[in-house]
Design goal:
single chain, mainly beta, Porin, 12-stranded antiparallel β-barrel, 4-stranded antiparallel sheet, 18 strands, about 10% helix, about 55% strand, disordered N terminus
Length: about 325
């Protein structure tokens, strides 16, 4: 009887340990749904992941170049829908290294005033810009937090590099039909960055990500734009996040995201490339997430709510801002490395 009880206790302790480890693996990637680029990151203690996310965003306001917020006019409307699917795989010969990528499909609705006092409305569906990354897990947190006597200050640290590819249709023009059909940036962009995560206690932690994007030049139509080549401005993004584990199946997360876009440049026919004035941008948004582990240790569902901040000076020169909701399903497979 004692042996049976001891075996049962050991089995229960093993099951709890495995569940807690699984939830911590989910915690390590809790804030990766802030952008499509990190949607398919494989968390620690996992070998591979496939994921999908459906999101909807309604534009409500804009920030002018002076940082003032203005609501969109009654005759202006914009709604974006996106389904992003992706996957990631840790390399079998070196599990600190992984490849991951995402492919979105977008539906866009745009309504603008037209010259004949009517409303110009258009809806379009198409592929967005795909992304592919290589990611190296340089450090791993011991997950003990900062309060214990034997705790460590070492965080988990990932370094990544990759590219966004111009697989989405890009149409230049001011009409609602042109804006609805613009599914991508129209140019390849090189991306580098880092992501650090540190447990504050055994059930909560903080995350900081830095990201730099360098777009390459794209061809332009001189008849419509006056330029034969256009280069979007470089971007610097910072994301700060916090998460909290509740029991063995729930995780709550919050994030603040800020992106600075530097001046774009263009080249007119027969002229050298020059910087374009008033093309710098800054955008700030917040997000809340709730993750439910549906099946330990491999399946979780995350709901998210986000909003661009309509406050003065927190953003500048951004035309489309609003609120967003998303739902994401993620499946881990192939066991632990």
């Amino acid at each position: 009887m004692t042996r049976v009880s001891l075996a049962s206790a050991c089995a229960l302790m093993l099951w709890v340990a495995l569940d807690v480890a699984a939830l911590r693996a989910h915690a390590q990637s809790c804030c990766s749904l802030v952008s499509e680029d990190e949607l398919s990151v494989v968390p620690p203690r996992r070998r591979a992941v496939v994921t999908s996310r459906f999101s909807a965003k309604q534009m409500l306001f804009l920030h002018d170049s002076e940082g003032r917020s203005h609501p969109l006019g009654e005759d202006v409307s914009a709604t974006d829908l996106a389904l992003a699917v992706g996957g990631g795989l840790r390399l079998p010969f070196y599990d600190r290294l992984q490849l991951h990528g995402t492919m979105p499909v977008r539906a866009q609705l745009r309504t603008l005033p037209s010259s004949d006092a009517e409303r110009d409305t258009a809806t379009a569906l198409g592929a967005g810009d795909a992304s592919l990354f290589v990611r190296w897990s340089a450090l791993f947190d011991d997950e003990r937090g900062l309060l214990g006597d034997d705790s460590s200050l070492q965080p988990s640290l990932d370094l990544f590099a990759g590219a966004k590819l111009p697989t989405g249709r890009h149409v230049e023009g001011p009409r609602a039909r042109d804006l609805a059909r613009t599914m991508g940036d129209g140019s390849t962009a090189l991306v580098v960055g880092m992501s650090a995560l540190k447990y504050i206690t055994s059930t909560q932690g903080a995350r900081l990500s830095l990201r730099f994007v360098h777009p390459l030049a794209r061809d332009s139509d001189p008849a419509g734009t006056g330029y034969e080549a256009f280069t979007p401005g470089d971007q610097l993004g910072v994301t700060a996040g916090y998460w909290l584990l509740e029991g063995m199946h729930w995780l709550f997360g919050a994030a603040l995201d800020s992106t600075w876009t530097f001046a774009s440049s263009a080249r007119a026919p027969g002229e050298p490339e020059r910087s374009l004035s008033n093309t710098e941008m800054h955008q700030t948004s917040i997000g809340l997430q709730l993750t439910r582990v549906l099946r330990m240790p491999d399946l979780d569902l995350t709901a998210g709510l986000g909003a661009d901040l309509p406050l003065p000076s927190v953003s500048a020169n951004v035309s489309w801002e609003g609120v967003q909701a998303s739902i994401a399903l993620r499946y881990h497979f192939l066991g632990e490395p």
